[in-house]
Structure prediction request, 340 residues.
Amino acid sequence: MYLHGALLAFLALTGAERLETEDQDEIASLKVQLLQVGPAIRRRNGFDVAGALADRPPGAFGKLKVLTQAIGLTYNTTKPKNRPTSLNFTVDGVAWRALASLSRNPAVGGVFARVFESTASDPEAVVAFKGVCTEPQLEQCQVDMCYLTQIQNYGLESARVAQLTGFDVTSCAKYAHLLDFTDQAARLVDEVRKSLPKHRLVLTGHSLGGMLAMSSAGFDVPAVAFAPTPSQSTKVGGNVASLCDPYDCGINSFFVPNARHGPTCLFLHQEEPPPCQALPEPYENRTWRELLEKQGDLVQLLLCKGSAHRWPRYEAMVAAVADGRRSLPVCSHDFSAIGA
Prediction:
C-alpha cells in the first residue's frame, strides 16, 4: 500500500501518461529506494532509549537488563573465556535466544559479538559487541591493544599508556589487516538488518564494544553503550546514549575531548573501588580537572579507571536501579566531555 501510493504520487508529479524508457528507469530507482526505507519505517517504533533511561513508563528502565544479559553472555561465551553455558535467558517473562549464524568469534582477533532475538510475537533483536580483552599474553588481546593505540583511546597519552601496560606497539604491523573494527561491526549490523527485517533492533556493548555499537547505530537502529571507549576518529550514528560510572568516563573525557556522542548518563553516588576513593568526584568541581592535569597522577588515574570500568560493576548498577534500590542515572550532554 505504501509503495503503491508513493508510485502514484511520483506519476502525478511527472505528469506521465505513457512510460518511456527513461521514466521506467526512474520508477525502478524509486522502487529500490522505497524498499530500502521500508525496514527503517517498520523499525521506527523500536527500542525507546530515552524512555528506558527515564524509566518512562515506570518499569521501562528494566529493559536495560536485556542488554546487560546479552553483554555478559557475549563476554563469557566468546574467546578467551569460551565458557560452556546456555545462550538463552529470560527477562520480565520474555525469552531470548542467541542466533549462532550471526555470531562473531574470530580465530585470531577482531570484532566479537553475539546476536539475540526475543521469542515474543513482536520480535526484537539485540546485537551485543564484546569489550576489550585484558590478557596481554593472548594474541586476541594484542589485536585489541593495537586497535586502541590506532584510535588513540587515551588521546595524546595513548602511547604512554600502552607502555605502562607493557604493550609493544611495534608488534601491531602484522595485525594491520584485522584492525578495521568499525567496518567489521557495520558489516555485521547490515547482515542482521537483512536477516531480521521485521525485528526491532538495538545495539549495545561495553568498553570497546560500546564504541562499536555507537559507530554502527542509525536513526532507526539505536545504541546503548556502557562506558564506551572514546575515539575522535570514529563516526557515530544518530540515536545513541552512554551509561557510565563518573570516574570511569570522567577520566576518558579528560584525555579525549568530546569523548562520547549523545547524552552520557552517570550512575552517581555509587560505592567506588578503593583506587578512586582518594580522588575528588568527577563533574562536581574544578579540582578534579586540576588533579588530572598533574602528570604524576597518571598511574593512579589508570588504576581508578580500570577498577571502575569492570563489567560486573555495570551489571550490578543496572540491576540495582531496575530493582528500585538505587536512583536513576542522571543524563546530560555535558557529561560527554569535561569543560575547561
Observations:
- The beta strands are 89-91, 94-98, 113-118, 124-129, 200-206, 223-226, 240-244, 264-266, 330-332.
